[in-house]
Structures are given as structure tokens and as C-alpha cells.
Amino acid sequence: MSGEEETPEEETPEEETPEDEETAPATAVTVESLRERLDAIEERLEAAETEDDLDEVEAEIEDLEADLDGADLPEAEDEDEEDPAEEIESETEELKSQLEEQRGPYAEDVVEDIEEAESTVADTEWTERGEGEAAEAVESFVESVDETLDESVTVASESIEDLTAALEDAGAAVETADLDPDDDADTVAALLEASEGLLSDLDDAEEWSDLSVREQLQAQGFYDVLDHRKDYPPEWGALKVWTKRGRADMVLLALEKLESEFMEEHCLDMLKRLGPEEAVEPMLQRAGKRDQDAIETLGKIGDEEAVDTLVEYVGEEGDPNLQKVTMKALGEIGSREATQAVADNLVADDEEVRSHAARTLGLLGDTRAVEPLADVLEDDESNTVRASAAWALNQIGTERALNTVAEYADDRAYLVQSEAEKAV
After folding, report:
1. 164: closest CA among 107, 127, 123?
2. This model's pTM is above 0.70
3. 3-state class of 185 per DSSP?
4. pLDDT on residue 353
5. Helix runs in 104-212, H state only
6. Rounded CA gap, 103 and 113, in Å?
7. Which has the least CB within 10 A, 32, 250, 336, 405?
8. Domain 275-423, architecture per CATH
9. d(CA 343, CA 371)
């Protein structure tokens, strides 16, 4: 109606949020709260009976560590005191160690022990007695696995191959059993006790390294050839007898076991005389360290297996003695694969190296060397080197080689004349 005053609309007042309904701030992480949580975790760890219980404890420890990393804790008031954060971190680490100690045992631990035992049996150099002790240890363990798991695991024989095969079968049986750390705790514990016993027994079994050098040689019959002890040391007397009998295996045994320079020198000297095939590998190992005695021995043996190793040393200009010894050995082996490497030394600075190179080419007998040897005979300033080249051409012996030398019948050097007369 007109004339009537309009009643103004009432504004709806804004609803106020009660203070107790506001978002509460996150609980502050304090030294006290962290210590309380540590105590609670320790109690749960002591009460844990299953792996699931331990997993829950581990999760709580991880949560505590995360909170500790993000916490702003006060520092120690005294310099001699440890910071609260460091103390709590240290106690947390101790809890984690206790947690790990409380876990298991697991079937995986048994398998790891078995694999370690398998490697030990295969890789160890046992004495005759020790091999029997190792076999006894493996047989006892396999029997334990057989009884505990009711599996048919056996040892075929006392050979190293059969012992390792039996351990491999035992490990496979443990894995196949799929043992639960909670439900099968007693079974796992029994297997772990057996596997730890196996490792202990293998550790106690006699190895060659447990014996003194003299005991090792005695056990391998090295002194059996001695009917008296006239020579001193007795090893020297035995070595001479074995060399006379052509027993390179015993000379190599002495070389391996006896560490004196006196015995090493005589062993290598006797191997040079014998030139046995079985010495190739040990001599190659020594030749790899530029051992000149070993290189000489390889030359006496004459096996072409050594050529690739020796060719590498022919060009080492900083060591003329090594070059000369190596070229002589290559000449004795007689492989023409070495021809180019040796021929490269015909122009070496050292006169003796050039002379050895020429003579080695003569021993190799490769006709490709005729032309470079002819050049040396014509141009080298050393008569000794020229004489070596003439000798080498005579050794090669082809018509071209002999005709080349024959042209020097009136040479200024007597040695070259002598070789020319042979060629004619």
C-alpha cells in the first residue's frame, strides 16, 4: 500500500566458525615425542613373533626417521653433550640392527651357505687328507638335508665333481621346499645349523696352504729320490736327480714352491735343458713379466704357442738385452709369423740388435727376408752385422740367397768372405 514504509530486508549474518572447529595445527615433533615413540617401538619389537609383526615395526621406524629428518630440534646446550637429534638417530639405528637380528632365519640364508661351500670345495687345493675331510663334511650335510626335507639327495662319489654336484642338488632341494620363515621356522633353523656346520668343517679340512713348503714337497714325493742328504739344501740334491730322470713335473713343482733365488735360478736352468711341453704355460706367465730366463726356456721348448707373446717384446728398443733374448727364442721356435717383427730390427740403432735380427731371420728361413738381408750386407757399416746377414742368407739357402752372398768373395771383412766361400 502507498504511504506505508517498506520494511528493510534483514541481512543474513555470516556464520562464524567456532574456534574449536578451526583446523588444528599439526602436532609438533619434539625430543620427548620422538623418545616416547622409540620406547613404544622397542616394546613392539620385543613382543614381535612373526615376520608380519616385524614388518610393522620396520614401517614405524621408517615413519620416525622421516619425522626426525623434518624436525627442528634444539641443539645441545653444552659442547661436550651430543645433540638430541644425533642421540635419537643413534638409538634408531640400534633398533634397526635389533630388528634385522630378530628376522629369519630364511631358506635363502641356507642356500647362500651351500653356494659358498660349493665354491670352496671346487676352488680349494686340498691335500689328500683334506679331500677326504671335505668329502666327509659334504656327505654329512647332504644326509641332514635328506632327513630334514625328506628329499633323496645323495653323493655319488668322493670326487670334487660329485661333491659339488651333490651340494648343487641340496641347494635346489631347499629352494624347491619353499619354506616359510614363520610356519617352517624350526626346519629352516635346522638346515641353517647344518649349513653353518658344513662351512666350519670345510674351513677345518686340510689345504695345501696349511702346510709348510717342505711338508708340501714331502707329501708330493719330491724328496723320495734322496737316499742321503749329501747336498745342501736337500732340495738341490733332489732337483738334480729329477732332472737326470727327465721329470720336468718335479722341476716345475720345485719352481712353484721354492722361493729362494738360488733354487729358482737352478730350476729355470734345468727347464732350459729339458725343454718340456708342460712348462709352456708357467713359462708364458713368467714371460708376461719379461722374465728373460723364461723366454729362453720357451725357445728351447719350441712351441709356437709362445710366438704371440714374444713378438710383442721384439720392438722394445729401450731394452736391447730383452730384444736379443727374445729374437733368439723366436729363431729357435722357427715360426715365420715373427719374420716381419724381427726384420724391423735390421735398422735398429744397436749393432748387436741388428746382428741378432739378421741371424734370427736365417733361423726362420723365410725367403721374404732375402732382400732386406741383401741390403744389410751391402750397406751396414758394421762388418759383424754384415757377416750375420751373410750367414743368414746361407741358412735360407735359396739360389737367389746364395748368389747374393757369393758376390762377396773378395769382401774386406774375413767373416763375410768366409760365408761367401760357403755359398760358392
Report:
1. 123
2. no
3. helix
4. 95
5. 107-123, 128-149, 160-177, 185-204
6. 17
7. 32
8. Alpha Horseshoe (1.25)
9. 11
